Amino acid sequence: MRNPNFAGVVSRPRRALGAAAVAGLAGLGLAQAVSATELDAAAPIATASTADGTEVSGVKIDAKRVADPSSSKFTAPLLDTPRSVTVIPSKIIEQTAATSLADILRTSPGITFGAGEGGQPLADRPFIRGQSSGNNVFVDGVRDTGGQTREVFNLEQVEVIKGPDSVYSGRGSGGGSINLSSKSPKLDTFVAGSAAGGTDNYYRVTADGNYAFGKNAAFRLNLMATGGDTPGRDSVDFKRWGLAPSLAFGIDTQTQATLSYYHLDSDQDPDYGIPLAAKRTWGVAGTDGRSRPADGILDVSRNAYYGLDRDWMKTKADIATVAVRHEINENLAVRQVIRYGKTLNDYLVTNPGDGGAAQFVAGEWWMKRGTKSRWNETETTAFVTDLTGKFELAGLKNRFNLGLELSREINDNATYVIFTTAGSTCPTGFTGAGTGDCTRLYAPNPNDAWTGVINRGPASQSKTRSGSIYAFDTIDLTQKLLLNLGVRYDDYSTQGFNATATSANGVVTGVTYASLAKASWDFVNYQIGLNYKPTPSSSLYVSYATASTPPTIAAGDQNTAATPAQALLDPEDTTSLEAGAKWNVFGDKLALSGAVFRTERKNAVIAVSATQTEQAGEVRVQGVELGVSGSVTRAWQVFGGYTYMDSELVRGPYTSVNVGDPLANTPKHTVSLFSTYRVTPQLSVGGGAYYVSKSFGGNQGGAGGGANKVFAPSYTRYDAFASWSLSKTIDLQLNVQNLTDERYILRTNGVHHADPAPGRQAILTVNVKY
């Protein structure tokens, strides 16, 4: 990998909060409010524990962490919140050896990841209930903009809201949103760390130190360094490092101030996967003895890598936050958060399907390499004010939250101008070779020589401003009947310009700037839910929620194909109706949940001709979610769920999908289950099982248009886990990811490429806590 040289923590009033929850729940994420003492009693007895009674690893879920979402916008515990919310606690993150957002979200069914294509950067791009949610990621309740591949070393838990939730998170939340809850200073002094090594040159070192001083102050520092190769992929390696210091004063007092900073730096080989079958000129010569795969994914080796040593992918993230919370009295508290963040996503990647169709020449299949590049810097400033409390009116108890959010985002986007002076030789007879830079389709060589000129082009820019006010209230109509209400008003505006470069031999010779019209929208979203509690440990609910997804006038996003960049579109509207049940059993040791839902987007953008689009499309996703979390017995714990999604284009066509077709990245069936069992006081064993049925790629249809032609086949993946307590402060943890070395496609964009999933990898970790 080489890059050439170029010319705070959200909290709620302590007295207004429910106590700790049993655990986060994959699937619907049910978390029943119980006391920390009850949680300790529910967990298995451990001999290797720290001073606070929690384990270094093993199967016990951290009883000191509230498993409700960290956002004060939730005015009731999750058991009494009438919608689907998944909370994935730190213990599940540690036990599964997760290092990325994609690793964490694998434990929650119904979430898939899309490939970077069509203006989407190589970055985290989760799909929740069939809707792209890459722009709906938050850190401690504040939107985390910019294309990023996120780390987990500073996370306390991950919270996923499923279904339209613009009332919580504002614009662009048709499928749901993801909140990353950061680690924060505590009032006890401790030092924890881990050192891991594994196959494929894997290493990872983390450190977590907390120093309490004075009566109510503490400093916490998290550090991480990691690197290695991607299992099953030739020449794809990575390295990352990060640090996250935080300082808090007035912890557990009426006034608390927290200052925090987060930095992540990564450098890796970008991987655009393998080309699709559509990129081979099937039938030409027809003498290679290969048949076209039914799934449209080329029958090449999983470790085939089409990149070159010139390729790079570097990302940086810097986030500074100041959070102040003041408890006015036992019924009222105010919180102010100020956030400044800056991210950079910088890459040049070889696209195996972008150089044209492969050609059968001299008894072999050859293809010309294509390229994709991006330099994307995003700067965000945000101010969030919350007023939270409780009151009684006309004999009815109310728990409320009122808030104001103001933000500004500046997005600079550029590509690289690339000129090849000498590439790998194309064989005689290869047409349209140009300068060269060819490779064998079935035996690509990442060590092929390449020389040329690479210069960064001019940056296009967009500026976005948004202001929001919102209100939430949970009203106890009776002891058994709760009414949950929420409403939010957003004022959103954006403007920008496109920069187009002319070049000669890789050198920019001229720049043309095109101003894009300033656009603004305002919209109101709401939710209403009714919760009936047959018992204190159960609830039945029904809810209705809305979301608005405004377009952007920056090129390469929603205004593509037939719509000129200057054309202004209306926000797409999404609605959802959901009914479900949540139930804690075995003395609140095991949480069960189930729900049915129906999500509709009724004014999706569709192409009605080669030169015109209209917002007349309609898509629908409906299905069932089941979840389980907690202790079946004192020694056996489970975390997982099942999601069924029936997706359909009701009116279209929509991104080359025909009416009646299922949506991209929306498999019908997804199952995730991670379970551990304490065999002896020292030994715990377990593992995970994950099943995903086939799912179609984005932008389906290709040159043939219309029907879905490319899909990722179904797969089942197994992981293994074991931990051994060496002492009260040290244990060993073994993870084997993809135990059976299953070959499967993680995602496909449906046009150029498919991304093979990593192969089998064994990781041995030493965990220490004092």
CATH topology: Maltoporin, Chain A
For the terminal residues, how far apart are their CA atoms? 38 Å
The main pleated sheet reads as: 22 strands, antiparallel, barrel
User: What structural class do helix, strand and pairing data support?
Assistant: mainly beta
Q: In which range does the helix fraction lie?
A: under 10%
User: How many E strands?
Assistant: 40
The CATH class label is Mainly Beta
Dominant shape: globular
| Strand portion | over 45%
CATH H-level name... which superfamily? TonB-dependent receptor, beta-barrel domain
The mean pLDDT is 83
Q: What's the tally of helices? A: 4
Corresponding CATH architecture: Beta Barrel
Q: Would you identify the regions where 5 or more consecutive residues have pLDDT less than 50?
A: 1-66, 553-566, 699-707
How many domains? 1
Q: Rounded to an integer, what's the Rg over CA atoms?
A: 26 Å
Sum up the structure in keywords.
single chain, mainly beta, 770 residues, disordered N terminus, five-stranded mixed β-sheet, Maltoporin, Chain A, globular, 3% helix
Q: What does the model show?
A:
The protein has 770 residues and is mostly beta strands. It has a single domain, classed as TonB-dependent receptor, beta-barrel domain (Maltoporin, Chain A, Beta Barrel). It is built from four helices and 40 strands. It has a 22-stranded antiparallel beta barrel. It has a five-stranded mixed β-sheet with strand order 1-7-8-5-6. A three-stranded antiparallel β-sheet has the order 2-3-4, with no helix packed on it. A hairpin with a 5-residue loop joins strand 12 (237-249) and strand 13. The chain starts with 35 loop residues before the first helix and ends with a strand.
